[in-house]
Amino acid sequence: MLTVLFYWLATSFIRLCVFIWTRKEVVGLENVPRHGPAILASNHLNMADSLLLVSLVPRRIIFMGKIELWSTPIIGPLYGLYGCIPVRRFEADVAALRRAEKVLRQGHVLAMFPEGTRSQHPGLGKGHPGTAIIALRTGVPIVPVGVSGTEVVSLPRSFLRRTRVRIAFGQPFTLPRERRVTTELAEESTERIMKEIAALLPEAYRGAYVGVTTRTKERTERVARPRE
């Protein structure tokens, strides 16, 4: 009960903060399923990316975050209270994968940043297989997300000047279910996920995936209307 109460109080505060410090262009929010499990797979420019997702998606989101955050003074314990899942990055964290799968079996939305760290310069980095492995093992839909503009956010200074940001939600897609998740399949699926994310980003943000175009981008630009 305490966790749920804290989540909704914190979420309300986050939405107020995002309203104050951003001018948002939102594309394709209707692509996020209203019910049932889903994975939000997003690029990662700034800690503010998580706040944007929380403020926009009208469902409870469970985040996977680097375990180092839990050691942050004062704020660290709040990640667990908010329901986040700690992850030992760049290694096979089986416990974190099982917790993520449990979240999806319970019908929640799981948010992941496949790069494993924040993008640099701010180009999209190469993806790591964790997101793909969870999606392959569970068969849940993946909603690619492209965020741009948050790389300049610096709190509390950003409260003094509203930052223009853009966040695009692509069409959901699923990866093929296989009896055995091989390294090759995980790598191919990771590449698919990253290309779907890249297609939602301005060219300057695509980094390792520059030049990528997919049907996701074409569908999103055709049917989704930006809104503040």
Q: How is the topology of this model organized?
A:
Layout (H helix, E strand, L loop, with lengths): L1 H20 E6 L10 E5 L5 H9 L4 E6 L9 H7 L2 E3 L6 H12 L3 E4 L17 H9 L3 E7 L14 E7 L13 H16 L16 H9 L5
Parallel strand pairs: 1-7, 2-5, 2-6, 3-4, 3-5
Antiparallel strand pairs: 6-7
Keywords for this structure?
alpha/beta, Glycerol-3-phosphate (1)-acyltransferase, 7-stranded mixed β-sheet, 7 helices, disordered C terminus
Give the structural class: alpha/beta
Strand content: 15-25%
Number of domains: 1
CATH class: Alpha Beta
- How many helices does DSSP assign? 7
- Helical percent range? 25-40%
The total strand number stands at 7
Question: Which regions are unreliable across 5 or more consecutive residues at pLDDT < 50?
Answer: 216-228
First CA to last CA: what distance?
A: 34 Å
Largest sheet: 7 strands, mixed
What string gives the helices and strands in order? HEEHEHEHEHEEHH
Q: Name the average pLDDT.
A: 87
User: How are the strands of the largest sheet arranged?
Assistant: 1-7-6-2-5-3-4
Give Rg in angstroms.
17 Å
Outline type? globular
The CATH architecture comes to 3-Layer(aba) Sandwich
